[in-house]
Structures are given as structure tokens and as C-alpha cells.
Amino acid sequence: xxxxxNPIVILNFKTYLESSGxxxxxxxxxxxSVEEESGITMIAVPxxxxxxxxxxxxxxxxxxxxxxxxSPGSNTGSNLFxxxxxxxxxxxxxxxxxxxxxxxxIDLVNSKLNDNDLISCICSNNVKTSIAVATMxxxxxxIEPPELIGTGIPVSQAEPEVVQGTVDEVKKINKDVKVLCGxxxxxxxxxxxxxxxxxxxxxxxxxxxxxxxxxxxxxDLVSKI
Length: 225
What we know:
The chain contains 10 helices and 8 strands. It is α/β, with parallel strands linked by helices. The protein has one domain (8-221): Alpha-Beta Barrel (TIM Barrel), CATH 3.20.20.70. Strand 3, helix 3 (81-87) and strand 4 form a beta-alpha-beta unit. The longest helix is centred in the N-terminal third of the chain and has 17 residues, at 22-38. The protein starts with 7 loop residues before the first strand and ends with a helix.
């Protein structure tokens, strides 16, 4: 299992043109550079088509955006665990609000990741869901109220009780599960507030990806730590 020091920054590339193809590689290189300069763990979450190249040309930790709960065989248009594993993934996001999963499917895919000593970051939308997924022993639980995603309003300000409640309840279940704060995180102040609430890192996306200078935005993100 990966032993990662806090704080953690996970950047979800989503399907923005600014984070696709050649630009995905450039963004991964920016993450790599900021990690070297700051000493803070940076993790890339590109589209499946960009994973292999990023792993070939950088040393950045890389997660898939989603893995389907399927076995090899007669499936079309799905993300197969074995294929992503051969592409070099270090783990995967699961259950993002834009790619919800059934609880049984989360458990199945999470077990595959755990069995292969890979990173599992399970997203949740509230404290109750955080409790449920924490029992599966992922490496990370990322709390992201969906109504705040992409708004620029950080959950650490709008709903601090959700972050604190998730941290408290997850740690009761398994103190080794790290809690990340997502939704609206984009600045150094946002990240500092998330850490003050007990989060051990952040999961972010558009605030960095769509910035005029993503590397500068990443350096600002970690500037208050």
C-alpha cells in the first residue's frame, strides 16, 4: 500500500479540453513540478486515454477517474480494471458525484484496488455516506457535497460541519482512512481552512484546470501550508 504523507492534493482532470491529450500531459508535468518544489504529494486523475502516456513521461501518481464493476469479457464502453492496471494506474477515484455507483459495485472495485495495494479514493456526498464507505477501508474518503461542485464556493466555508462530521465519524471507524475535502477548493485559503477542519488533503478540479496558469494556481494552493 502507498504510504503518503499529508497533506495530499488530488487533481481530477475531468473531461475539460484544457486537461485532455497534450494538455493533460502538460498538466501532469505541472503537478510533478509543484510536488518537487513544495514537497507536497500531488496526484493526477486524467481521462483513461491519457493515463499511459502520463505514466510513461512523468513520475506523478496517477488515478483512473472511474472503474466499472465488470469482469473481462463481453462489455462495451466500460473501464476494465485489468486494462487500467496494465496502463500503469496507481489507483482510482470511485463514486464521484458525476459518476455515481451502487454500494455493492463500490465495494467490489474497492476490493480489487485493495487486493492489488492500489490507492482507492471513494467520494461521498454527506456524513452518512462517508460512514458507509469508510467501512470498506479505502485509503481516502473525499467529502464533496454535489451542490457545491464547480461553484467556486468551498465546502470548508459553506458547510464546515460536513467536513468536521466526516472526519470525526470516519476516524471512529478506521483512523488510517484519510479524509479529503472537495467541492469548490481552489485557493491557498481554501486548502488551509480544509486542513484546519481536520481534512488531510483536498480533491479539486476546475479551479485549477481552468485557471490561466495552472502551475501558478497550484503553487498558490499550497502557499498557506
